[in-house]
Each structure stands twice: as C-alpha cells, then as structure tokens.
Amino acid sequence: MKVAVVDSGGANIASVCFALQRLGVEAVLTGDAASILSSERVILPGVGAAAPAMARLRELGLLQTLREVTAPLLGICLGMQLLFDASDEGDTPCLGLLPGRVGLLPSAPGVRIPHMGWNTLEPLRSVSLLDGIGDGAQAYFVHSFAAPVSEDCIAACRHGQRFAAMVQRGHVAGAQFHPERSASTGARVLRNFIEKGLA
User: Fold this and answer.
1) Domain range enclosing 65
2) In the chain, count of helices (H) and strands (E)?
3) pLDDT band at residue 11 using 50, 70 and 90 as cut-offs
4) Which of the following is catalytic: 17, 143, 159, 180?
5) Catalytic residue at 180?
6) Which CATH number fits the domain that encloses residue 48?
7) 17, 68, 77, 171: which is the annotated catalytic residue?
8) Does 178 qualify as catalytic in the annotation?
9) Tell me: the pLDDT tens digits for 68-114?
10) In sequence order, which residues have a C-beta less than 8 Å from that of residue 137 and are 6 or more positions away?
11) Which pTM value belongs to this model?
C-alpha cells in the first residue's frame, strides 16, 4: 500500500513517519501532486500556525491537489485544522474539505492556553477509525485553536470547553491530538487508518 505523508513543513513530520514505521509502514514523504494523488492513504501533518502552513501548501502547488484527493485523507493537529473552511488564527482561509471554522480555545481560571498534555477522548460515533478506542482513552495534545463539536465530530475532548478531538466526513478525517505521540491510543488510530481506511 502506498502511503503519502504530505511535506507540509510541520515539525511533527519525522515523528509521524517513525510512528508509521513502527507499524511496518514505509510512507513516502512528498510534496509531489502526482505522488499524493496516486497514494492509497494520505496524511497531512502540521505544527505551527494556519497562515504559514497554508502558504507552504500554496507554494508547493498542493491546495487543489489536496482538494482532489479521493483516497482516505487524515489531517493531524494543525493538519486537521487546515481541513476546515477557515481558521480564526490570522483569519486564514483553509482547504474547505470540512465545513466550519476553527477558533481560539478560551482561557479561564485553571485553564491554560495552549492546551498541552494528555487528555481524555470521548468517542461519539462508531466508526472504523475508532475501533478499539474506548471511553477513557488518553491522547496527547498541543494546540491553542480547535474545531467545534459538530455533526462531523467523531470524538470530543474537554479543556475548559468541549472541542472536536477527531472529525470525519466521507474520505476526510482529522485528529487534533498527536497520534504519533499518544502511545497505544495513537498507534491504534494510525493502524485503523492504514488498515481500514475511513469506512
């Protein structure tokens, strides 16, 4: 199976590739449109801010390519946020593969922003991506912006307020947490994505 990791410039790219290697998957790190479109699984990693990340994809000529992907597509952390229509971070237009807008997590007494560390996932739907992930599963987060809990949310999390920890619509999905840093929970999510797609 050909698995493409989009060379989005994110600092988590190497760790995503290593996490896939631990599952026996040799992914191709690429910024080539033809390679991405011919892959059976596509992963869009990301760390940093929305505007520079979108600028990087634009420079690589990949905005339309990612919109044309028909294989299962998984966005990770900032990569998930880029799947939406827009982000309040710099008022940035994004890929528009998922409806909605990413917003800043509100701070409150006892609620630090960025949200950094382990937190509990709340599965909301029975989908293949969540096979083996039950209530109480822990994942590792590092982010200040988040997507709302909408009809596309398949797992939620709470940090002050509830937000979308995982989303899925058709062949497009995202994880706000870092599966490559989330021990057995993250490994299971990646294995489900590789082996089962987004059925």
Assistant:
1) 3-196
2) 6, 14
3) confident
4) 180
5) yes
6) 3.40.50.880
7) 77
8) yes
9) 999 999 999 999 999 999 999 999 999 999 999 999 999 889 899 99
10) 120, 121, 123, 185
11) 0.97
